[in-house]
Amino acid sequence: MAMLLRPFLQDRLLHLLVLLGLALACFAPFSLRQLPAAVDWSTILTLCGLLMLTKGIEASGYFDVLGRRLVQRFRTRRSLALFLVAAAALLSTFLTNDVALFILVPLTLTLRRYSSLPITRLIIFEALAVNAGSLLTPIGNPQNILLWQHGKVGFIGFIGQMLPLGGALMLSLLLLTALCFSGKQIERAEQQSEPQWQRSLLIASVILYLLFIAALELGYTAWGVLVVFLVFLSISRRTLLAIDWSLLAVFIAMFVDVFLLTRLPASQHLLQQIPQLSEGKQFLLAIGLSQIISNVPATILLLANLPASTLLAWAVNIGGFGLLPGSLANLIALRMAKDRAVWLHFHFYSLPMLLWAMALGWLLLLGIGAL
């Protein structure tokens, strides 16, 4: 029990969100019956399943084997960083940004056992990469799924709509990666014996992973989570105990806080003025709103007042950069890093990336409009 409660008691972000919610509740008109509906339970269940599955693969020890092979395969820090950033972006285009992070961040953490690498910086760049890569496809992230469902373009049309921005941002990020990671040779740790790993746990986790993804696609998320939980309960209870369950509470608190924020009379008045704003102001509003309440809730709010246009799609995806709340993927990556310094270092790279993406996106929009 102490092992389960410790993350909740030590989670300062969770405590801050709870206090913020209590403060908002003093001014926002609402009833307690409305709060459960404010939470996107599909997202919470998906996250729950991914937490268990990723921890299962991590507990199997196979990330140690894979990490050792990566360190032996790549000679320089720059080449390894470019590989991980490109892999994060590619995986996020069809597995979604959070799934890509659940695969790559635990793998990246194992690299410190076999070499002296800037692990924190690698994780930060992986978070930036999934934000850039996931914007390309309708299934890359939750806000794109919403925009695709509300828009008038098909799957290929949506990719064509996002390609100019996605291509430009990925090229920029790869160039930034090459600049921020040196061509220094990877310093490998002293030769260690081949790491031990549990083949049966890995196979079970991978099979469950595939089944869970299928359950998500078919709309049986809750059943998928239940099956994953029951299997791990029977074969590896320690895996369930080692999971950072407080992350789910953080997401629930974020959804409730956003709901209360939108219930404020001042917020409702401002939302009604959105359709009258110029395109430039709508662009800045979508990005700014994403910085405060995250780009998925921002998309939900803005779709009630704006069409699912290229401008809106680009703006909310650009809003994933910058401040930590911009994208839920940022929170996932930094939480998994388990390094207090990562929170400050992340903004050293993400804020300039936000400014560059804003300028680049607006110039591209103007160019497309001129055509």
Bulk shape? globular
Low-confidence stretches: none
What is the ordering of alpha helices and beta strands?
HHHHHHHHHHHHHHHHHHHH
Average predicted confidence as pLDDT: 85
User: How large is the radius of gyration?
Assistant: 21 Å
Tell me the β content.
Answer: under 5%
Structural class by SSE content: mainly alpha
If helices are DSSP runs of H or I spanning 4 or more residues, what is the number of helices? Answer: 20
How is the main sheet built? Answer: none
Q: Roughly what percent helix?
A: over 70%
Record field, number of beta strands: 0
* Amino- and carboxy-terminal Cα gap: 62 Å
Question: Notable features of this structure?
Answer:
371 residues, mainly alpha, globular, 20 helices, 0% strand, single chain
Notes on the protein architecture:
The protein has helices spanning 2-10, 12-25, 35-38, 41-60, 62-73, 77-95, 97-110, 119-134, 142-150, 155-180, 199-218, 221-235, 237-241, 246-263, 265-272, 279-293, 295-303, 310-318, 328-337, 342-370. The chain contains 20 helices and no strands. The mean pLDDT is 85. 76% of the residues lie in helices and 0% in strands. The relative contact order is 0.15. The protein has 371 residues and is mostly helical.
